[in-house]
Structure formats: C-alpha cells, structure tokens
Amino acid sequence: MGTSGRVGEVPTIRLSGRDVSYELRRSDRARNVRLKVSAEEGLLVVMPHDYDPERVPPILREKAEWICRQLAYFASAPAWKPEGELGDGQTVLFEGRSLILRVKAAPEGARWSTVALSADTLSLSLHDRDRQAARRVLERWYRREARRRIEACMADLGGKSGIPSARVYVMDQRTRWGGCSRLGNLSFNWRLMMAPPEVLRYVVAHELAHLRERRHSPRFWLIVTGMVGDVEGPRRWLREHGGELRL
Predict the structure, then answer these.
(1) Every domain of the chain and the residues it spans
(2) Which end of the chain, N or C, is more open, meaning fewer C-beta atoms within 10 Å of its C-beta?
C-alpha cells in the first residue's frame, strides 16, 4: 500500500481575484500533480515525494477557473448530512419527483424485501431480516435502477456519438457525480437516480466525453454539447440541488 504525508504548510495564492488557501500533500502513489476540491478539505494538491512545491503555483493559475468554480459549488451547495433510518410517510426523490415512501412488512412467505414504484409512491415491503435496514434495502434498489438507466443512456449516447462502451461502476461518492479512470472505466454516483433524467443524461455524456478528451477543453465541451445539447441547465441544477439528493 502507498503512503502519503502532509508537507506541513498551507500556502495561499491569488486566483481569479480571490485568495485561495491550499494544502500540499506528498504521496508515493502519485506520478503527477493531482488537484482535489472537497467540502471538507478545500483545495488539496497531491504530488510525488520528489516534486518541487515551487512548481505548484503555475499549475494552480492554469486551473484557476476550474478551482474557483469547484470552491463556489461547495460553498453554495447544501451540506451533506448523515443519512438516518427511513420511516413510513417521509418524502424521497426519484428522477426529480417527490414520492411518498410507504414502509410495511412483507407478506407472509415472502423470501426477500421488495420495492415497488407507482406514480406518487415508493412502497418498501420489508422481510423480517431487514426490519432495521430499510435504508440499505432501498439504496440497493436505487443502485440497480441507476445501473439500468445509466447503461441504457450510455448505449444511446455512445451509439449516436460513436464512443464505444466502457465498464460501469455505480458508487457511493460523496463529492462527485461521476468519474473516468485512466483505464477508461466510468463510475457514477447512485444518487443521480434522485435527479431529473436530463441531469443523469448530462453526467453520463460528461464521462463518456472523457473517453475521447481527458481535459475539459473546448473540444471536450463540444463533444458533450453534441450529445445532450443543454449543458448549463443540468450543471446549474446540480450546483443548486446536489446536496438534496439523499435518503
């Protein structure tokens, strides 16, 4: 396993008219400098052990627009809160709609818990062994629905744009909606099933585009726009409502 360590200083740099503090962290897994922005840690710079910290500021200035956009998102988005147990009658989100959750005991003789979707209700029938695990059961259902819709969306968008399919992982990221690994594997946050379909479709297009263009270059955004048309609407929705996507 790799090891990492803090450099021990928190420098500040002027980016797009604002002072931004960042933490330097060395890692023996890092081959290049990586930038991470999160609600918990702010701007984090991960670099190889033998990397000169004096080379970091020019990289940050080059990425200033992206860094400030990420910091603004986490400053304005509702904070993630611990997700507790579910209760009958509470409201849950599915594809941008507010549904009433109905929690009841599964019929006698049922072999497992089930979830049923109707126009305005999500019904959760719990097997005896799952009586204290309603959220876990419902999350599994969301994950299955997310995979099914994401794979269908990938087939549609990829087919129209000529981008080949990739391996898909449905994850539990807290600060990301999707990702594209160096190996070309795509990951998506299962909570996207709570967002409107056009938002999920945008995130799928965004990650598919990374299979053609790794950077957020003008060419990258042309690829995304070519697949979904509207880009700013879904991005704005995630900035304003992303923190609400929770059980």
Answers:
(1) 4-76, 134-244
(2) N
Q: Is residue 171 pLDDT above 80, yes or no?
A: yes
189 and 178 in contact (C-beta within 8 Å)?
A: yes
* Joined tokens for residue 238: 């995630």
Assess whether pLDDT exceeds 50 at residue 20: yes
- Select from 88, 111, 108, 91 the least CA-distant residue to 100: 91
What pTM value is reported for the model? Answer: 0.69
| CA 211 centroid distance within chain | 17
| Cβ pair 194, 238 in contact under 8 A | no
Instruction: Please enumerate in sequence order all residues whose Cβ is within 8 A of that of 227, keeping only pairs 6 or more positions apart, or say none.
Output: 157, 160, 161, 205, 208, 209
What is the C-alpha to C-alpha distance for residues 170 and 227, in angstroms, rounded to an integer?
22
Largest CA distance in the chain: 68
* Angle separating helix axes 64-76 and 232-241, nearest 10 degrees: 40
The CATH number, out of the four listed (3.30.2010.10, 3.30.750.200, 3.40.50.2300, 3.90.78.10), of the domain defined by the range 134-244: 3.30.2010.10
The strand pairing partners of 104, in sequence order, are 125
pLDDT band at 1 (very low <50, low <70, confident <90, very high): very low
Distances (CA, A) of 50 to 24, 26, 230: 13, 8, 43
